[in-house]
Design goal:
By secondary structure, the protein is mostly beta strands. About 0% of the residues lie in helices and about 55% in strands.
Length: about 120
């Protein structure tokens, strides 16, 4: 399976970020897999943002205070992260990931910079 992130590289504070993870070589509705967004701010560790399960159930990190949401388009085999009310602290590398059967498969990541 291959995962490819896409979205704007530069967004302004207070705007909304929308990132899409296009999946090939496997269906996002295949049982037992979770599809996840993770980010890494500059100089910091990895932070889980949220996940959407194969069933469509979603789980979010409370640290983002409900600014984050994940949806999917099964017809396009992709899932999308929306992050509202951006601040410069949202700057970082954003990755999408598939987890299942004890294995992680990551996308290459996309850099998002929040700056005016």
């Amino acid at each position: 399976v291959l995962l490819q992130e896409s979205g704007p590289g530069l967004v302004k504070p207070s705007q909304t970020l929308s990132l899409t993870c296009a999946v090939s070589g496997g269906s996002i509705t295949t049982a037992s897999y979770s599809w996840t967004w993770i980010r890494q701010p500059p100089g910091k560790g990895l932070e889980w943002i949220g996940s959407i399960r194969y069933s469509g159930s979603t789980f979010y990190s409370p640290s983002l205070k409900s600014r984050n949401s994940i949806s999917r388009d099964t017809s396009k085999n992709q899932f999308t992260l929306q992050l509202i009310l951006l601040t410069p602290e949202d700057t970082g590398l954003y990755y999408c990931d598939r987890y299942g059967s004890g294995l992680d498969t990551w996308g290459q990541g996309t850099l998002v910079t929040v700056s005016s």
